[in-house]
């Protein structure tokens, strides 16, 4: 395979060629800087719609591209909230690399059938400018066709003038809802950047094409740094490389204390296998933080000055060989259990740092799980939980509370798999901004759908499943 040319350079980019997972979400234009208007979440509690007679809905129309549930429940006794992407034995992959185990390099994401990216903060994904900004869904897991988790960007932006060959191939998405159950590999900053030396080993990760496999499977390859060309870094070659579709994806490096950092943004290269050029995240840090209004460097200031906070703590020592489960939070990556002191004294605040984002205290139900997303207009819809469905192993109450943006009419539907199609078992279609559904159901597979009847914007959705 050869890379596509761009003004004499070769861009690692794959066209949008795969189906979106949720009907009506095929990468429409994105609302920019959408904000959730203030709403009275308590009113969602009072508006309960009972289920009427189930209406059979066309599986093809409402769930196009989503894998059908298995014909019979699994043998174990635990309910599963999300897909766990199956590992595929493809042998050598990327170019000279391998597929990753479940939860391996969990912060590496896929951008709608085109590019790869990196979750660098619970609410921030960094990728390449040449990938563009039209993304309505971002996928986590090991297989784009069966993601473990789907998240919605509030907006995506590219660096003004950013492009391959300039060292500023920068782009960023801010997520509508923080992802707090995926471990983050911090960005290489300050004195840590001295580790970027010719001959040093690094790991490249992405969902792109491979020498013996298709696009959409997360793969990794270990290779070495070649050198620098201005603000770009050259990596790989001799059959170990990234390829089309890996654009925007990360390059990782291991530090002397055993913890890992992410530093590279895959940009362009020659023929797959011959090496490529990468922009470096720390070069764009001031812009990333200015756009997102978030501190995405827990140990440093944007200019690289050592300034550790409570989050400068417990970084992973083995993020690529986790072999954990997504429902378990992908937390088995051998966390260090220590405050970082790579460029100075460790954080002096004492005690373990607080959670990145505490659980919401205004949730309309006790023990419920919060999801979120952004709908672009009438007819747009999101499937939950996170683009998937869940199994209830017993009878009980299914509760859904939708809190929509002011001035919109978003509706809420609960579906159950009847063996051959999805059937509506409960719905709330009032003219209210908020909708509530409570349904007592038997064991089976269920999915929620949030759909815009009119209006656009960012919503919150709370789900409580049977115990």
For the record, the count of structural domains works out to 2
Q: Give the name of the CATH architecture of the largest domain.
A: Beta Barrel
Radius of gyration: 22 Å
Distance between the termini: 51 Å
Helix share, percent: under 10%
Low-confidence stretches: 1-63, 69-93, 351-361
How does the overall form come out from the CA principal axes? globular
Describe the oligomeric state of these chains in a short phrase. single chain
Structural class determined from secondary elements: mainly beta
* CATH-defined topology of the largest domain: Thrombin, subunit H
**CATH class of the largest domain, anyone?**
Mainly Beta
Largest sheet report? 6 strands, antiparallel
Q: How many helix segments?
A: 3
Beta-strand share of residues: 25-35%
**Extended strand count:** 28
The pLDDT mean sits at 78
Region (Disordered): 66-86, 345-365
Signal peptide: 1-25
Domain Peptidase S1: 94-293
Pfam families: Trypsin
Q: Please, could you describe this protein's structure?
A:
Keywords: Disulfide bond, Signal. Residues 94-293 form the Peptidase S1 domain. The protein starts with a strand and ends with a strand. It has 467 residues and is mainly β. The chain has helices spanning 42-46, 59-62, 285-292; strands at 4-6, 9-11, 48-49, 55-56, 92-93, 97-99, 108-111, 115-121, 124-127, 138-140, 149-151, 153-158, 171-175, 201-206, 219-229, 232-235, 250-254, 260-269, 276-280, 369-375, 381-384, 390-392, 396-403, 409-417, 422-428, 434-441, 444-454, 457-464. The protein is globular and about 60 Å long. It has two domains: 1-21 and 83-358, Thrombin, subunit H (Beta Barrel); 42-64 and 359-464, Jelly Rolls (Sandwich). Residues 1-63, 69-93 and 351-361 have low confidence and may be disordered. The strands form six sheets. Strands 4, 21, 22, 24, 25 and 27 form a six-stranded antiparallel sheet that branches. Strands 14-15-16-19-18-17 form a six-stranded antiparallel beta barrel.
